[in-house]
Design brief:
IQ motif and ubiquitin-like domain-containing protein, 46% helix, 6 strands, single chain, IQUB_helical, IQUB, 11 helices, mainly alpha
Amino acid sequence: MWQASNDTVQVHTSTTMRATYLHELYQTLSMNYVSIQDRVDALKNLKEVLKPYHSKLTDNMIQLTNREIDLHLRGIKNAHLKGLQNRIRNLFWQFAKKPVFNPEMQLLTKIKKDDTSSPYIMSCSACKCFYILPISSTDEVLGKSVIENYFTKCKKCLDIENESWIRKDLELYKRMLKLLISEEERQPTKSSIIYILQPSDIGYLTDKIWKHQSCISGSKNDLELELTRFCINKNWTPWNCLLVTRQEANVLSKILDTETKYDKKFKMGASQKHAEARRYFATIPRFLPYLAEDFDVF
């Protein structure tokens, strides 16, 4: 309630509106004289409320709700479902009393509060649970300041997400990038593009563009593969390179004439790979200045 000059103004927040909705839903579920259609609609609304949460309590309630809906559809009389309905109502009452699901219940519990700070309500964007903590707290649930994490996930959800991420080993691409930089630094001319490359960029070139195999021999030996220049007289770029073995790279570096080095079919295949690399790296802003230059190899 806000005190105005002449009257009080009632203010609704997201938590009070949620508490009101849960209260009205509980009253509907507690009504004895209600049509079957209204009862089924109330049960469907209950399922929508429980859907974001995954716990033993909510899972049990969803199972009971589905069971009652199924029995209504089969034409079972309401008088034979009193026990099931009472169980659903009692479980929903337990659900509504938990501050995790209904943060307004926190105001009714006896919790020692800091006089210098008021409780702060945070909703996890993943599990939809509520956490009520002091504004200045650095708590175990969120990991850092509550204010900074208002629209983020709780620590439990972050731990689950961290375990489920698929991680890719980039050590191979780090080695290839290091080798590429060392080889280019020995060249009379080199492009600064090699210093903005990331291991993930090398990984895309190797796996997606060149299919993780030498374009000459088809070798897939990780310890032998490296990226070298397609046209020796031009700076190395993702659209002026070949994936070959170290021995093949040494042979190619000794042949300066591109016309005699590659046949027509090979040059056409390499040109398609280079065009594909151009399209991909054009989506990365840091490569745009280099794409603006003319790297036509033919």
